[in-house]
Amino acid sequence: MSAAEVRVGLLGLGTVGTGVVSIISRHQEELRHQVGCPVTVKKVLVRDKEKQRPVDLDESLVTDQIEDVLFDKNIDVVIEVMGGVETTREHLLTALRNGKHVVTANKDLMALYGAELLQVASENGCDLYYEASVAGGIPILRSLSDGLSADRITKMMGIVNGTTNYILTKMTQNGSSYEEVLKVAQELGFAESDPTADVEGLDAARKMAILATLGFSMDVSLDDVSVKGISSVTKTDLDYCDQLGYTMKLIGLAKRDEGRVEVSVEPTLLPKEHPLASVHNEYNAVYVYGEAVGETMFYGPGAGSLPTATAVVSDLVSVMKNMRLGVCGRQVQEPLHARVLKKANEIDSKYFMRLRVLDKAGTFQAVTSLFASHDVSFEKLLQLPIAGEEVAEVIVITHHTTKENYEQLYKKLSELEVIESIESSYRVEGGR
Ligand code: NAP
Ligand code: HSE
After folding, report:
1. Would residue 339 count as lying in a domain?
2. Cβ–Cβ < 8 Å for 251, 266
3. Is residue 63 domain-shared with residue 115, that is, in the same domain?
4. For a substitution probing ligand 2, which of 15, 81, 192, 251 has the most ligand atoms within 8 Å of its CB?
5. Residue 2: is its pLDDT beyond 50?
6. Does residue 193 line the site of ligand 1, with CB under 6 A?
């Protein structure tokens, strides 16, 4: 570290990168006050040097050669906001091995290679911070590793993807179509360049793997997360949710019971009065339950240029404070607990199901007796004839049951002659 300044190499100058440049420039006085010296951006890597950028930046700093950042001895901290996994992993390993501290917003990378990168950082006496990788501007990782570090976390439940929350909010509130709202989310910079990861739940799953690993001190990998996205959610489902007193959200759930965990991401019905039900648009929120603290909730913008950049630059401040104290590279901790996943008969929930059934005598009895034989009981039940058709819609909210019972019931229902189709099925959380 130069005594006179902290020198940053930035990988990426897109939505988040431009926010980082802007905050470093606009908040220079606050940064200098916290770390005792100025912060200077020395190099910025982009793909296309000719592209117009919405920030004021000396052209000579912009490069399209990664070596200009990784091998520049005058760079102390590499900030990675370019995305990508395999090549980016190589770049960050090189940076760490060259003694450069790293800050990244990349959940794809951290969910897959976080443990390795943290290990290499530690071996090289470097810091690696990744606050922006989960829930954008909300300091949730820092809260888990610092503020709640004395507690034993048993449940984290959150809205951790801004794009899908934006889509579900606009579909519910304005009746907008899925496709038109997704386009707006892309224009606003929330969605990933390929939004499949957002809408199919993978982005949220990566964040839940990171949260569960940290919150439970357990090596939870992406493969351990059961994932379902929102691309098949229909306006009809949302209308029925509304009629029955629920709001649909893409919920990430990480739960620990007696050392066994479940981690999932799926569209979930929440009672309208549930605190997460009123988290709208691109906002994120994470509910954390600790045995000692009880319930806490963290709320804020989960995506977007300046909110995400705030988390990135705050990580930079942490690195700079560690540099000043001479305590970099001390983050690695072996997980305290072995990872044990719950089996389907240990996962407990309520469910919503929408069926199209033949509107004739005997149907109802066939359906209800299947529910009873699988030990699944009704909490709410609605049957509506469909005008001009010989079918009716049946909407069910079940009482609590195990995932195993519900999946077996689902299979049997889909084979039942009087059922034309199972239109949709969702988990229901919150309430009793
Ligand atoms: P973005 O707008 O697509 O920007 C990516 C930037 O990286 C661009 O400037 C691009 O250069 C550059 N880049 C990409 N690949 C490159 C390569 N191979 N070589 C050189 N430059 C390359 O992405 P973003 O939305 O800022 O997201 C960046 C990272 O932050 C991702 O990991 C994302 O998941 C994460 N994140 C984003 C948000 C958000 O709200 N957007 C929130 C939290 C975390 P060009 O401009 O020349 O194309
Ligand atoms: N695409 C992500 C989202 C960006 O919509 O939440 C923030 O990680």
Report:
1. no
2. yes
3. yes
4. 192
5. no
6. yes
In a domain, 179, yes or no: yes
User: 353-364, pLDDT tens digit by residue?
Assistant: 999 999 888 888
Spatial separation of the C-alpha atoms in residues 282 and 185, rounded to whole Å: 8
Q: Are residues 280 and 383 in the same domain?
A: no
- Tally: H helices and E strands in the chain: 14, 17
How far away, in angstroms, is 173 Cα from ligand 2 center?
21
Euclidean distance between CA atoms 267 and 229, whole angstroms:
7
Residues contacting 115, CB < 8 A, separation 6+: 219
Q: State the number of CA atoms in the 13 A half-sphere of 52 facing the CB.
A: 1
Render pLDDT for 255-302 as a digit per residue (tens, 0 to 9).
999 999 999 999 999 999 999 999 999 999 999 999 999 999 999 999
15 lines ligand 1 (CB under 6 A): yes
Average pLDDT over the chain, rounded to whole?
94
Residue 133 Cα: closest atom of ligand 2 = 8
pLDDT at 1 over 80: no
For position 388, what pLDDT does the model report? 81
Q: Which mutation among 203, 210, 249, 282 tests ligand 2's pocket best, with the greatest number of atoms within 8 A of CB?
A: 203
Contact between 68 and 43 under an 8 Å Cβ cutoff? The reply is: yes
Query: 300, 303, 251, 302: which is closest to 274 by C-alpha?
Result: 251
Best mutation site among 46, 94, 283 for ligand 1, i.e. most ligand atoms within 8 A of its Cβ? Answer: 46
Confirm or reject: Cβ of 45 under 6 Å from ligand 1: yes
322-338: pLDDT as tens digits = 998 999 988 777 888 88
Instruction: Please give the tally of structural domains in the chain.
Output: 3
Give, using CA atoms, the residue closest to atom 7 of ligand 2: 303
H/E/C letters for each residue in 323-359?
HHHCCCCCCCCCCCECCCECCHHHCEEEEEEEEEEEC
Q: Which ligand is nearest to the CA of 104?
A: 1
Compute the Cα dihedral for 411, 196, 80, 153 and give only its sign: negative
| Nearest ligand 2 atom to alpha carbon 207 | 8
Q: How far apart are CA 431 and CA 313, in angstroms?
A: 38
Which DSSP symbol is given to 73?
Answer: T
Q: Is 282 helix (H, G, I), strand (E, B) or coil?
A: coil
Catalytic annotation on 207? yes
What is the domain extent for residue 371?
A: 344-428
What is the number of the ligand closest to the CA of 79? 1
Question: Are residues 261 and 186 part of one domain?
Answer: yes
Q: Are residues 396 and 275 in the same domain?
A: no
3-state secondary structure of 157: strand
